[in-house]
Specification:
One of its GO terms (cellular component) is plasma membrane. The chain is mainly α. It has helices at 2-14, 20-34, 39-51, 54-72, 80-93, 97-104, 112-125, 130-138, 144-169, 191-203, 212-217, 220-233, 237-271, 284-301, 304-322, 326-336, 346-355, 363-387. The longest helix is centred in the middle third of the chain and has 35 residues, at 237-271. The chain is globular, with a radius of gyration of 22 Å.
Length: 391
Amino acid sequence: MGHTSSVAAISRRKLPDLPLPIWMALISLAIGIAGGMNAPELVGVFNTGFGLALGEFALILLPSFVLAAAMEGQALSLDGRIAVLASPVAGAGMICPDTAFASLSPIAGQRKLDVAFGAYTGFKLLYPAGPLIVATGLGIANDALVLTGLLLVPPVWLSGLLWRKFLERSGSTAARRPNRPLDVNGLVTLLPFGLLGSLLAFGALPGVSAWPLAGFLCDPKGALLAASIFALAQLKAAKRRECLDRAVRRTGGLLLLIGCASAFGAMLTEVLPVAAFLPAATGTAGLLGLFLLSAVFKLLQGSSMATFAAVAPVAAPAVAELGLPGTAAVFAICLGSFIAILPNDSFYWIVRNSCFTEGRDRSIVTLTVGSVLQALTGLFCLLVLMRVGLI
């Protein structure tokens, strides 16, 4: 018995339990040393990679997390059907499916799983969440990202809703509850998202970018900042500092992860032929490679946000070298990150505890199969859009 325990203890010590940013930093340095870099070269490449687009990410993440923290502090009062319709917008606007689901599920009644799949879809495919974060990491700026996300959301979300409907008919979900009475006043809480969408739409008008302030506010980063300030203004003054502190803590940790991932990508590009890790093709095969790369990252470490942050800088050199279409590459990564909602994902536990009070053993199958169906539906639609020349 004692011998077995000691062997288990030794085996656990073989691989240190380190945070992902530390692993990436250490592996980056190891790659550089193995590639024969001297100290100045090693530090120079790491420094250049670490700082790549970090300022842009700060302008995206900090206001996004301020918006999310402000929304966490407000009680939503909506009809269950409106909560379902709002879930993709909330998932994208809050830059977090966990927060969007936690905010909307209490008033979703029988439609909690619909809200879960909606929030998950919006976070992955709508501005200013997944597409903007991935596009920034890939160094891609394209107005088609907004339209492509809007085209992909309906079929991807619908596949999740149909899966929930199938489960309901087979008796695998919790008992139905009546919807809450309609309370349109609850929509006031979602006004920051309305402001965000309005500014982005206004920015598409010709000549707006010629005015410095209007051009910035109608850019995704400026629109996010304006929406976060508006959401902050809706809070009581005593809660604003707490909201800002939470946003700063979340942003700081993610910026470290993004910096280390970017340094890892830069080091890998300097030492190894990165394009060799993806199929040497500019079409379907290359996109499938990005899809699978993103899926592997998601399965290994669970967090969707960390997947976006880590995959994009690593894949960016290969995307450029292979000449993959930028918009399609962004959404191939976003769709790969749908796979899968497992216990190493915080979203799994939030949805499980809310939707599976009975029969929790079904939660892994329900959420994993649903997310895989969404991913495959989205990938098929993405390839169709590329085939017909819309992206």
